[in-house]
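Shift notes (night). Ran histidine kinase while the centrifuge was going.
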Amino acid sequence: MRIKIMLIISSIVLVITASSLVLSLSFSQGRFWETVRNDLTVSAELASRMVSRELEVLKRDVQIIGTQLAFTGEAETTERLRYHTSHGPYLSLAVFDSQGWVDFYGRAAPSNSYLENEYMKRAFSGETCISPPEWESGGDLVLRIWAPLEGNRVLVATMDGLSISRMVSDIRIWETGNIFIVDREGYVIANMRENWVTEKYNYIHMGEIDDKYRTPKEMVSRMIKGETGIAYFDIADIDRIASFIPVSDTDGWSLGVVVPIAETPVSQIRQVLLSSSFVFLSFGIIAAFFAANSIAIPYKKAADANEAKSRFLANMSHEMRTPLNAIIGLSELELGDGDLSGEIYDNTEKIYNSGITLLGIINDLLDISKIESGKFELVPVEYDIPSLINDTVNLNIVRIGSKPIKFRLHVEENIPAKFLGDELRIKQVFNNLLSNAFKYTREGSVDWYLSAQREGDKVWLQSRIQDTGIGIKGEDLPKLFSEYGQVDTKSNRKIEGTGLGLAISRGMARLMGGDITVESEYGKGSVFTLRILQEPIGTETIGKNTAENLNLFNYTLQRRTRNQKLIRAWIPYASVLVVDDVAINLDVARGMLKPYGMTVDCVASGPAAIERIRGGKPKYNAVFMDHMMPGMDGIEATRIIRKEINTDYAKNIPVIALTADAIIGNDKLFLSKGFQAFLTKPIDIMQLDSVITHWVRNKDLEKELKEKSPELFVGKPNPDNTRFQEKRDSNTALPNSERYASLIEASKSISGFDITMGLELVDNDIESWLEVMHSFIVHTPALLDSIRSIEKLTEYTITVHGIKGSCYSLGAQTVGKKAEDLEHKSRAGDMEFVRNNNSDFIAQAEKLVDDFRALVKTAEKESDKALKSAPDKDLLAKILDAAAGYDMEGLEEFIGKLEQYRYEKDDDLVPWLREQGNRSEFLAIQERLAKMLK
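Came back to this:
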């Protein structure tokens, strides 16, 4: 009986044990295999990004050497090559032209057979590339970087062929897992086992000879096709698993992370389950309970590891930002110091550029970690939806560049005008989705649809962006919003991005109660739909007119009614300094500040502004500082004012940045550099008024002056008293005047020109507008002459940047857009685009100057001023005396008397005198008038 009972119990225990073992293996292995595959995929993606970044640094370092050679004479080229070969990782450096090598330093002279090399030809076409390791005739394994130089030359940098192997050799996955890289032909070019590289392992060739390499051959075949995936194979009777992914920005290289299956948690769990089976057989049901408990342990470890990873990522992102901010800030200060030279300057510049790149990645990681951990916080503010849409369009439309893309905007009129929400994050999501559409569309169209749907006291704000771009493969759609990766990396390897943008955007959308969905057909285009829940402010909608103006990209027209209602404060006690290297921009700024009644002084450079502040006379209430100027930019000038002029006045005077680069984050940049505020060009009147009200106007002083000298304010506008709203200066032309209407009509013959934008800047004061137009006509030809022959792109960029700003300020949109395209291309170093388009741009700008000259003559003929044959010589003599005596008040008085008349012939003398007087150019006035009156 006992034997039967024991057999029955043993049978029951055996059945339970076997069933438990089978069920446990099938249940746990599936989960753990999924975890292993995910971990390896993430590891491969991170390793690929790391290698891609390192290769980018190698290429950028060679490009920097190339940039230095552009400024080095032929006699010094060899010395420069010797220096970088001795102090860098290079075995040799050589310069080639189309005939062969022209200079080198290092080992034996390079062969002219390089000219037939594929990578040499690509470098001559303007591409910087890295060729895979290869054996030289001398028996050395080398890696080469090919970089284009100015003057149709190429710089070839030769490095140790095992450099990439050493880059990845220290990385271990579990115990012996490692990273390897193959080139587009399947040769191993990086591995911790260096003999795999030196002996040119190629599993495709090996698999064709020996069937035991069949499985690695299949994996490598997929890798050289640019696929991303997981593969199982065996080598030397060891089963292995690998995750592989293309390395972006390389010539078909692919990276794999491979580990023995025996080292994976799956193998460990299998051993645990087999041991547990023996325990089940020995101890029965009691042992099963403990075995089940032990099986749960790996799951807990995996969860704990995942949580620890999230904590680590968040903590490290925060910890790394602090030293990075110091690295970027201090290196930027050193670069701007002017005392650095040679290797120290080069190394500091590399530190700064690398820091900026790394900071962008860390910011994305920080956003992701915050969203994952639930610590991401929205900051709701009241925002204007038409302005947000307009800003997004203006920021992203430049991404079209020269691509044949038609961009259309479809904004519905029933969208509420104002919302309460996180404007910065909404703009970030809009920018990400719209920039992706332009980035991945080579030709065709991009359409942006915006609508709203009420739900109770909230509104669903919907954005739908449809493009005719490259589309997304069906199998890639589920991975589209995953973190740390891009889909279709083979097709997209030349497209910039960390792969975090869509994941961050969806996370933010979900925090706002919405989501992002996508529909796509590969090769035909995609549709991204964003829905977020927002709280409307009031019941006002944007309306039909605003919607139409947005759709026609004419939203600035809609703002004119708002601007015309603006009541500017009359502040004759205030004095400001405007700094800009473009004379036209100075005249525009002076015209915009004129309605405030303040004194406006102008200088054309950073050093001149520094001297004004250093002298302390007059004491200005604020400085409006242009950002981009030759020699010394606005940031450097402000740094010197703040740090090197040891006066309270210099340390505390408000400095407002003026720039034509309306990029998100610039406000933080300028505020961190000693500025108090930030205005973009063309300057928005409402923003300018806000800055003046906050930083220039002094209500306490104003109150005292009104009591002591009330005559200064009689009949003048006062934003604190609505009865002044309809009062305007007698010299200001209202939009309904006959002269204004006639001027508008005459301007219609000028293509791509909106005169109302220029008039709006000077409060529709036609006389002030004429001063600005005269300035454009006088100074623009000299600027155009300076860029006919392109010597240095840096100087060219600054010049077209200035022309762009003055054109946009006056409403010359077509020429302004042409200048903007050339600025972006020259900034990017695209010399071919600049040379091909520069002549056409100059011709268009010259025609614009001629058209403006005719328009100005028309405006002056219709002036109410009396006509004289020429300026009065007695008044000119008085102006000469005032200039010789540096008598600013006398100068203003006598020039004002000249301006009371029109002249049949004056060679633009009166406008020129006004401009020179405004800029305190006493010597220039003396020189010209002395010759005339002699």
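The chain has a mean pLDDT of 78. Residues 195 and 201 are 8 Å apart (CA to CA).
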